[in-house]
Specification:
Blueprint (H helix, E strand, L loop, with lengths): L8 H8 L3 H8 L12 H11 L7 E5 L7 H4 L6 E6 L2 H10 L4 E4 L11 E5 L12 H11 E12 L7 H19 L13 H11 L2 E3 L16 E7 L6
Parallel strand pairs: 1-2, 1-4, 2-3, 4-5
Antiparallel strand pairs: 5-7, 6-7
Helix pairs in contact: 1-2, 6-8
């Protein structure tokens, strides 16, 4: 799973027993050598899909981490690209890799922007928010977008119950719940708390109109369903 340049088992254990913020500060220098980084194929498919939905001028990567989403925003948002995250360590890595972008340290549950961006994206971060926290996150993204702006993020199809990935996710989430019940500070990361139906409901409550087309470049499963969708949440052109 990890390259020789990735974190050791001991380093991962220390991270897992830290808070989310401190854990990612520790992991940041080696994060891009782990399987937790969004795969290039997903970034490329998202970039291609967004080409048909613009034009955009200013883009925001929510929970930007080390800046993988900049490869999506840069070709689509010629005026300004901004990343926001609460981990100083992750932002340091992102700033070094993408000095042309603007970087903001903030809690994304209280985004410090209003009507500034045409496009917002996020990659692989929603599992870090409990369902009760998503309304604040989505309300902040809504507020950060201009009227008519778009919030986009890929969402993989849930694995079937007969598969090994399904039970691996069940086991991971169970272990994380036990860990958080007996250890403080909590480390919030769950794989099974972001079903599409629940995300649609939370996005609608925030004011978005949402669709979720397939990302055809990422293929289909044996039953013909897409392996990955691109959730597209549009802020109305006239929010009133």
């Amino acid at each position: 799973m990890f390259s020789p340049h990735g974190p050791s088992l001991r380093e991962l254990a220390v991270q897992a027993l830290s808070s989310v913020e401190r854990g990612y500060d520790l992991l940041a220098p080696k994060f891009d050598h782990t399987p937790f980084r969004t795969p290039r194929s997903v970034l490329t498919a998202t970039t291609e899909a967004l080409a048909e939905l613009g034009p955009f001028s200013k883009g925001l990567d929510v929970c930007c981490g080390t800046g993988a989403g900049m490869s999506v925003l840069r070709p689509r948002c010629p005026e300004l690209i901004t990343g926001v995250d609460f981990s100083a360590g992750m932002l340091a890595q992102a700033r070094a890799a993408h000095p042309d972008a603007t970087w903001v340290r903030a809690d994304v549950r209280a985004l410090p922007f209003a009507g500034h961006f045409d496009l917002a994206v996020t990659f692989g971060a929603l599992g870090h928010f409990l369902p009760a926290e998503r309304p604040a996150l989505f309300a902040g993204v809504y507020r950060a977008l201009r009227p008519g702006g778009l919030f986009a993020f890929p969402l993989g199809a849930p694995p079937p119950p007969t598969s090994v990935p399904y039970w691996a996710a069940v086991g991971f989430d169970l272990a994380m719940r036990v860990r958080n019940a007996v250890w403080r500070p909590p480390f919030v990361m769950y794989y099974r708390t972001t079903p599409l139906a629940a995300l649609r409901d939370d996005l609608a409550a925030a004011g978005f109109t949402t669709t979720a087309p397939a990302l055809p470049a990422l293929g289909r499963r044996r039953d013909g369903s897409p392996r990955c969708r691109l959730v597209l949440a549009r802020k109305p052109a006239d929010p009133r």
